[in-house]
Amino acid sequence: MLSRHYAAVATVLYSLRHQSLSLNPALPERQFMLSLNLRVLIAASAILSSFFGLAGVTLDRNYHDSVEQSLEEQLLGTVYALIAAASLDDEGRLTLPARLPDQRFTNPDSGLYAQVSSNYGSWRWQSESMRGMRLPFVTGLQRTQRAGKKITLSDGRELYLFSYGVVWSDAEDPQYAYTFSVAQDLSGVNARTAEFRRNLWGTLGGVALLLLAVQGAILRWGLSPLKKAADELAAIEQGKQARLQGKYPPELQGLTGNINNLLSQQHEHLERYRRTLGDLAHSLKTPLAVLQSAVESPQDTSSLTKIVAEQVERMNQITGYQLQRAATSGWTALAAPINVVTVVDKVVSGLNKVYAEKQVQVCVNVDDDVEFHGDEGDLLEMVGNLLDNAYKWCEQHVSVTAKSRPGPLSHQWDIMFCVEDDGVGVAPEMVRYVMQRGRRADNQIAGHGIGLSIVRDIVQVYGGTLEITASELGGAAVNIWLPMRSAEPEKNKQPGT
Hints:
This protein is α+β, with helices and mostly antiparallel strands and 497 residues long. It is built from ten helices and 14 strands. It has three domains: 116 residues; 141 residues, Beta-Lactamase (2-Layer Sandwich); 166 residues, Heat Shock Protein 90. Strands 4-3-7-6-5 form a five-stranded antiparallel beta sheet. The protein has a five-stranded mixed beta sheet with strand order 9-11-12-14-13. It is rod-shaped and about 160 Å long.
């Protein structure tokens, strides 16, 4: 029997050590991952590069098309000027004056060239600026038909060739159909296009870099609460503070609140284990002293056996009670809610088998939506002890009721438990007595007398109240009220409170 006692003490010591270690677990091996800031910057860079690249290509293409269209319109105007200057002689031949509208036509290699060719014959006229040059103009165009193309000369210069078909208005004979062609050096146009491209891409690149810098600053400001939380967690790990104390935006308040709840629970569990170990050591002093005295003093075997049996039974009660106190989990942050009616049905089913000879009639009045936000073992311990007492003391009828109702805060729901029986009940003056560890209303009934005290301690851990009154069935009614915490954290709760 003593070995069982020491094994129980060892269990508490191991649990305390395990709980202490769990407060500072070994960090898992870190794996390389891009930071949130870098991820967003990379994504923003890709999006901005794609957007400004597409915008730049589109603007450049539109500018190029606009320049080419403008150049064609300009060259068409030059063709109209040549047509206006041309005339037919008496023999029906086309002639152009020596002085043309644009002086560049008279200067060799001036960059502006002209040619007029007959659509039906070998006649051709060329401006002085084309002396010694042959350009691949398009010929044989019909009336108002136009054609334009870009060529590169052997010396690397680019020219734009434009041709326009004309039929002289005072003659219908095909021999009076001509193609007027002009060509212009693109050096100036290309220079302006290159300057536009430099300005365009420089502006777009500068705007993109500016937006990235602004994005980086916004990210740094927006993610600063996360960095602050990480710094506070590091301070908690180093023991410099006990909880997250800073002000955080609404999006992080749920996270920081749940972290504080977890820290509070760890602190509460550790303190409970420490108190339990101290209480256990203190409670075992008296029975151990009695055993020590009995062993040292001369007594007959029967007396010694009786003393040992009594003290071992007492130590069993003490260790069982203290271990149950230590095992009480209390509120569990982020825990999945437990359906109460499922637990009640499970306990009732088991007790019906244990007390089958009594043929107890059980009335279960538990709403389907009643949920318990805590440890399932604690709920089983409470319901099991209360129903076990009710089965034990009843004549034939037991009633269990559980309902939920709105709590004082909008995010809270309270749970009301009531277990009744039709037994002898508990006198008001005996209520305090039966709530004590090891006390029983009737010593003829089997048990250790620690069931109600365990329930009382569990209820206290959850911040509730327990009350024993007279039942309408004629026996005792045990009423429990538990304020249920929801997933929304309590922002002002301190560890250990």
